[in-house]
Design brief:
The protein is built from 19 helices and 50 strands. The strands form twelve sheets. It has an eight-stranded parallel sheet. By secondary structure, it is α/β, with parallel strands linked by helices. It is globular, with a radius of gyration of 30 Å. The longest helix has 30 residues. InterPro entries: Class_I_gatase-like, Galactose-bd-like_sf, Ulvan_degrading_GH. This is Carbohydrate-binding protein.
């Protein structure tokens, strides 16, 4: 009976998986921020939401952007429109999520949190060292924010003024100017230092004692911002005030629309200002938030006076430096997480909605944990303890920048699995690459490039692709101002792209790819330790960051998936059949990327047991020197292979060759891939060619196997049996979802999977001459070359849908395929007035159906991007107009006769 029940359960799971693949729910469909630049009327809400639904978007998050006057945010008119939008969304079957703030940086509620509550504004710790009895703190500036321009400063600071008040000496110490042998040689003189003078920009302090020769006085002074709208995230009362004035009004207005269709609240980059000042020096790269509770938290965690722990944060205080520094940041991070995220979670659960969102990610657009926002020190913000933060939210979300593979989705999937869930939402925004004004965005983004990134993200751990965003308006001409002109608010607003009518094709396909992955666990033989306490102690410029980035890139380049694990994951793991069982996965090897500091020895003890059971432990860079519980350790405990060098291709290949292969293997050119364990002995694979040339490879799985092709474009499934080898030929940007299982019997058949197989290229016809063109409906037609884009032929600033026409003759009656070698960027084809198909990415191949011999009319509607239109006459265009339309001769290719 148990075996029969298991078979029945597997069959049910298979049916449910297939049903989800055919009709993916909102959780797998693209979602989007809906940028409100003004309060919309009912007609606008109905028109735009219906458009979003038609284009395949499943979830919308309303986001008030800087173009919306701040005083209108959360006004009665705003809340009425919000409720109306929720009603319309429900009628359309859309889900709605609460984006929790105005613009971004959660917690300020458009400035309402701190109105009348000055004590909730961000308060920071600054420090200064000198051999004198007097000193200053001066020229405090948010370097990170200043780069974004005056409008962002005006949004974050009242009147655009960065001012300070309530200067307070929090700690002061005397210490050797040279090396400090031990922290007990530090003299706490806090009671003897006072503020000597201050204004809104700086303060001076004075020590009433003497500083001996060879000694230094270091003073830590806190100040509260008098003008910042950002809250102090260490204060739970600030989080509660944010809830009261920022979230409760929305939920109250929505009423019974919560929790359906409004089922989540999304926080976005809660972070203090990243301040620098003239006297700043030491290990920490920005000021720290301060609240009185921090003193007791640090004392409890470190066991040393607050002043001593602070000095360890910024400079070397002897052998205990790394331990004290790590424990300080652990206390600081825990206080922040509980004060802000903990309050949000409790509130969300009380409303029966899901808490999700993402902290600021210093690794955005990079594989190295601190390779994105290199000008900030993530330890001063909720931007290091990703596993801890994820244990507080209900669903994982991360932030990704631009169209490159990066750490965010892999880290998101990892922390989700560590906390008993899986996969994540990946918000993708676009910063300009051809101008220094990052907010100008990328109107040049194509649907093909976005689709490719969405598939890569899915392979790296994303469940849902979140657009940043769909726009309410497309902004103003002749105004290059970033942010307040919506046109340059991290473009594109995808619904104003000429290729937007093709978005539903992308939405259906990526939803099915994601749903296909959902039913299986990834084959990830390698676990990479996320070295949290090393990051706390050493800081963002330490080698652990670059070593992590190198391991990620080298493993993926060789087709080896991996997952990040925490110290606790390893310490609590089981060991079975030479594998480490953690986060719901089975690992053959564990990587220690330049790990110098650990929280406890529990992980090392488990790794020792793992090595003794036949597991592999690989390390690079530096080795463990400090354990925060105080035990002495050898840096090479349990390690089976160590190199001080950065991991390279040769080294990683050699290490991977020591692992026993499991499941389907790929031989030949390597595609982007995802491979996972399915139920009942099945495997699932996603293979994708994101390159510019065809690739070919073989899939092997024992002596014989059955397989099925799950067509993500059509939602169909086709099964095949008893093959020895599956040869896959992928054209550029072609993706395949394949399910396969050993069949227990030998097979000699080789199956070939190729979309080109049915084409008879010996009889192709090049349609090179005779084309005419109109720059949009209702425009006059004129001759045009199809070997060059229309931007080179009198239409440099035209963004939209251009129409190409051609009369052609076929001498043979046949089923014909139209192949377009180069399209910029999406196309719909008509033959003899009948629409025959549309494509938004390569391969641009459209079936024309059965054509009789004789003359026919071909019409191609080609959409480019909005770049040439919106960047025209601005500093953001770059070197010239982007390619548009056709840039190679279309081809007519007859289909081979197929046997009946």
């Amino acid at each position: 009976m148990p075996e029969t029940a298991a078979i029945a359960d597997a069959a049910i799971a298979d049916l449910e998986s297939r049903a989800l693949f055919e009709r993916p729910t909102a959780a797998f469909r693209p979602s989007a921020y809906w940028f409100w630049h003004s309060i919309p009327d009912e007609a606008t809400c109905r028109t735009q939401l219906a458009d979003f639904q038609t284009k395949g978007i499943g979830t919308i998050l309303i986001q008030a952007r800087l173009a919306l006057p701040r005083e209108q945010y959360l006004s009665p008119h705003y809340l009425l429109a919000y409720s109306l939008a929720a009603d319309i969304a429900a009628q359309l079957g859309l889900k709605l999520g609460i984006y929790d703030d105005y613009n971004w940086i959660s917690g300020h509620a458009g400035g309402r949190t701190v109105e009348g509550r000055d004590e909730l504004r961000e308060r920071h710790l600054f420090w200064s060292s000198s051999a004198d009895t007097q000193g200053t703190i001066s020229r405090i500036h948010p370097a990170f924010t200043l780069k974004m321009g005056a409008d962002i400063i005006a949004w974050q600071y009242e009147g655009g003024r960065i001012e300070w008040c309530e200067w307070t000496v929090e700690a002061a110490v005397l210490h050797s100017s040279g090396p400090i042998a031990a922290y007990d040689q530090i003299v706490d003189v806090t009671s003897q230092v006072s503020i000597a003078g201050s204004d809104r920009a700086s303060c001076s302090y004075s020590y009433d004692g003497a500083v001996a020769f060879g000694w230094t006085l270091t003073v830590f002074i806190s100040a509260r911002s008098a003008t910042s709208r950002i809250i102090n995230y260490l204060l739970p009362e600030a989080a509660q005030r944010f809830i009261d004035v920022g979230l409760e009004p929305i939920v109250t207005a929505l009423g019974k629309r919560v929790p359906d269709p409004v089922g989540s609240v999304f926080y976005d980059q809660p972070a203090p200002g990243f301040y620098r000042w003239d006297q700043m020096a030491g290990n920490l790269g920005n000021s720290l938030l301060f609240a009185p509770a921090l003193k007791d938290c640090v004392l409890s965690k470190t066991g040393v006076p607050f002043a001593v722990a602070l000095l360890a944060v910024v400079r070397n205080v002897g052998p205990e430096t790394l331990r004290l520094r790590a424990l300080f940041h652990a206390a600081y991070s825990t206080l922040m997480n509980e004060a802000f995220f903990g309050r949000l979670r409790g509130w969300a659960e009380g409303k029966e909605i899901v808490l999700t969102g993402h902290e600021i990610l210093a690794h955005v657009s990079s594989w190295a944990p601190n390779g994105g926002f290199t000008s900030i020190d993530p330890r001063v913000a909720p931007a290091v303890d990703f596993f801890g933060i994820d244990s507080i939210r209900h669903e994982t979300a991360v932030d990704a920048n631009n169209l490159v593979p990066q750490l965010a989705p892999k880290m998101g999937d990892s922390v989700a699995r560590s906390n008993g869930r899986s996969r994540c939402v990946v918000e993708t925004y676009f910063s300009a690459e051809r101008t220094e004004v990052r907010a100008a965005g990328q109107w040049e983004v194509t649907l093909e490039a976005s689709r490719a990134q969405a598939i890569r993200l899915a392979c790296l751990g994303a469940r849902q692709f979140l657009w940043h965003g769909v726009y309410q308006t497309d902004g103003l001409d002749n105004d290059p101002t970033p942010f307040t002109n919506p046109r340059f608010d991290f473009a594109p607003g995808i619904n104003f792209e000429p290729w937007w009518p093709y978005h539903d094709l992308f939405a259906e396909e990526i939803a099915r790819v994601s749903a296909f992955i959902e039913a299986a666990k990834p084959r990830a033989p390698v676990a990479i330790l996320y070295p949290l306490y090393t990051a706390f102690a050493e800081g963002p410029r330490h080698g652990h960051a670059t070593h992590i980035g190198a391991w990620c890139e080298q493993l993926l380049a060789q087709g080896c998936d991996f997952m990040f694990v925490s110290e606790a994951d390893i310490a609590n793991a089981a060991i079975e059949n030479r594998r480490l069982l953690a986060s719901g996965l089975a690992f053959d090897a564990v990587v220690l990327p330049s790990v110098t500091v650990l929280e406890t020895t529990a992980m090392l003890q488990k790794l020792d047991a793992f090595t003794n059971a036949g597991g592999r432990i690989w390390s690079s860079g530096e080795t463990v020197s400090t354990v925060c519980t105080g035990e002495r350790v050898s840096g090479s405990v349990g390690v089976t292979s160590h190199t001080t060098a950065m991991p390279n291709a040769e080294m990683v290949f050699s290490l991977l060759s020591t692992l026993t292969p499991d499941g389907p293997q790929i031989s030949g050119q390597r595609p982007w891939q995802w491979i996972g364990h399915d139920v009942d002995g099945w495997w699932r694979m996603v293979v994708f060619n994101d390159g510019a040339e065809d690739i070919s490879f073989d899939i092997l799985l024992g002596d014989g196997f059955d397989y099925a092709i799950w067509d993500a474009e059509q939602g169909s499934v086709e099964a095949f049996a008893a093959v020895h080898k599956l040869t896959v030929e992928l054209e550029p940007h072609e993706v395949r979802c394949i399910r396969l299982r050993k069949n227990g019997r030998a097979a000699v058949t080789t199956s070939i999977l190729s979309s080109r197989a049915a084409l008879d290229r010996s009889q192709l016809i090049a349609l090179a001459e005779g084309w005419t063109f109109a720059a949009g409906e209702g425009r006059a037609f004129a001759p045009i070359s199809v070997d060059n884009g229309w931007e080179e032929q009198s239409f440099p600033a035209f963004s939209g849908t251009g129409i190409y026409r051609l009369s052609f003759t076929t001498e043979t009656e046949a089923d014909w395929m139209l192949e377009l070698p180069a399209v910029h960027t999406a196309v719909t084809a008509y033959t003899d007035g009948t629409k025959v198909g549309r494509r938004g990415w390569r391969p641009y191949r459209l079936g024309l159906g059965h054509l009789a011999a004789g003359s026919h009319e071909l019409e191609l509607h080609v959409a480019n991007t909005a770049a040439n239109r919106y960047y025209d006459n601005t500093p953001y265009l770059g070197s010239g107009p982007d390619k548009s339309g056709l840039t190679a001769s279309p081809l007519l290719i007859p289909l081979r006769n197929r046997p009946e």
